[in-house]
Design a protein that fits this description.
Elements: E1 2-9, E2 22-27, H1 34-45, H2 50-53, E3 66-70, E4 73-75, E5 91-98
Parallel strand pairs: 1-5
Antiparallel strand pairs: 1-2, 3-4, 3-5
Length: 105
């Protein structure tokens, strides 16, 4: 079991405390990837996250509007194996930043 401590920045109000809520997800996976974290968040929160994270359900789909950081390291591939970042206590820190599209004028 891996505890994924996820901080969300720029996401819609999910009924959690503050503008940058942090929540723990308990995931029992053979291989931990960013895509699995996205899917766990979609399962937990559903519709509010669907526009940003919904495409992650498709294999090899890249999310251009979400930046993923693991233990302060940028992760560019949602399918990169994150197990090497899990600490001795079974925890990993994840930061997801939703980048809103800027309309050009």
């Amino acid at each position: 079991m891996t505890t994924v401590s996820v901080t969300l920045h720029g996401f819609p109000d999910l009924g959690l405390d503050g503008g940058q809520p942090t929540l723990d997800l308990e995931l029992a996976l053979e291989i931990l990837t960013g895509r699995e974290v996205f899917k766990a968040l979609l399962e937990r929160f559903g519709a509010p996250l669907e526009p940003a994270l919904g495409p992650a359900r498709e294999a090899h789909c890249r999310l251009k509007n979400v930046h993923l950081f693991v233990n302060d390291k940028t992760i560019n591939d949602a399918d990169e194996v994150l197990d090497v970042h899990v600490d001795a206590t079974g925890r990993i820190r994840v930061l997801l930043i939703l980048v809103k599209a800027i309309a050009s004028g």
